[in-house]
């Protein structure tokens, strides 16, 4: 089973406008149209069995709409062979973060997505640390955008040093750092984060990371806590699979990365 642990979709009525806006802001070209149907077509072409959808709550008042949509998406795909499986989201300015995290749990969502840049909050802010601590208590997976965001390149709100501080103070369980620990900061990832009790996903690394850097982190961190991910539609699923397949990675380790680790982390979804 191949599991893409990091994808995004948008409601069909706003997908085209949203993709155009983000392309212009980040100076990148999307690989897909950002719709549910577009992701399903990409999965079929690439041979991806499950895509984990990660919604971002950019304003506190979006919480209920986004998480209800996530729960409905999961129900729609629950018994399908090719599946989309959505996490939930929460904003650090939530007036009742514990209540909202319990709602995420009660909706059957297995995790949350945090995005320090789009939520304008540094990762070591107490609001995030409280969310991570309680999410750990509830058994939720927490996925966070880490490193440079190409749309906000001048102010990195989640870098390896801030992440290290959070690990030391909170020790969150089941924390997934997107973009292989921190996008475009992989030397610091190898130095400060590789080997810690965290998960790394491979989102938006194809064509961006040097093979040497990828393999150095893999060697130090181990293959058991690395997750295949693309950041679709911002990176292609087929292209990322080819990128990983071309690296000098042991076959058993590659199978762990492509799907076995995800099944271990969120087995309830399969």
Tell me what you see in this structure.
- The protein is α/β, with parallel strands linked by helices and 270 residues long.
- It has a single domain, classed as TIM Barrel (Alpha-Beta Barrel), CATH 3.20.20.
- It is built from 10 helices and 9 strands.
- The chain has a 6-stranded parallel beta sheet with strand order 4-5-6-7-8-9. It has a 3-stranded parallel beta sheet with strand order 1-2-3.
- Helix 7 links the parallel strand 7 and strand 8.
- Helix 2 packs parallel to helix 9 and helix 4 runs parallel beside helix 5.
- The relative contact order is 0.15.
Low-confidence stretches: none
CATH fold title: TIM Barrel
Structural class, from secondary structure content? alpha/beta
Do you know the CATH architecture?
Alpha-Beta Barrel
Fraction of residues in helix: 40-55%
Q: Which geometry do the CA atoms define?
A: globular
Number of domain units: 1
Tell me the number of helical segments per DSSP (H or I, 4 or more residues long): 10
How big is the Rg?
A: 17 Å
């Amino acid at each position: 089973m191949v599991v893409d642990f990091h994808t995004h979709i948008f409601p069909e009525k706003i997908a085209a406008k949203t993709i155009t806006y983000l392309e212009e802001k980040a100076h990148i070209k999307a690989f897909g149209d950002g719709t549910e149907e577009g992701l399903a077509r990409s999965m079929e072409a690439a041979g991806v069995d499950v895509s984990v959808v990660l919604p971002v709550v950019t304003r506190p008042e979006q919480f209920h709409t986004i998480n209800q949509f996530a729960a409905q998406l999961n129900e729609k795909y629950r018994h399908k062979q090719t599946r989309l499986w959505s996490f939930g989201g929460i904003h650090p300015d939530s007036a009742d973060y514990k209540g909202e995290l319990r709602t995420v749990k009660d909706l059957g969502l297995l995790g949350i997505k945090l995005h320090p840049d789009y939520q304008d909050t540094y990762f070591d802010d107490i609001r995030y640390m409280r969310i991570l601590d309680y999410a750990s208590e509830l058994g939720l997976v927490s996925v966070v955008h880490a490193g440079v965001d190409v749309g906000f390149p001048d102010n990195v709100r989640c870098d390896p040093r801030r992440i290290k501080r959070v690990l030391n103070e909170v020790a969150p369980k089941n924390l997934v750092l997107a973009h292989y620990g921190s996008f475009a900061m992989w030397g610091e990832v190898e130095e400060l984060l590789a080997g810690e009790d965290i998960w790394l996903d491979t989102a938006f690394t194809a064509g961006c990371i040097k093979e040497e850097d990828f393999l150095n982190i893999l060697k130090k961190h181990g293959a058991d806590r690395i997750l295949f991910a693309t950041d679709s539609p911002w990176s292609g699923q087929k292209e990322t699979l080819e990128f990983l397949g071309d690296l000098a990675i042991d076959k058993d380790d590659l199978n762990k990365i492509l799907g076995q680790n995800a099944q271990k982390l969120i087995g309830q979804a399969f």
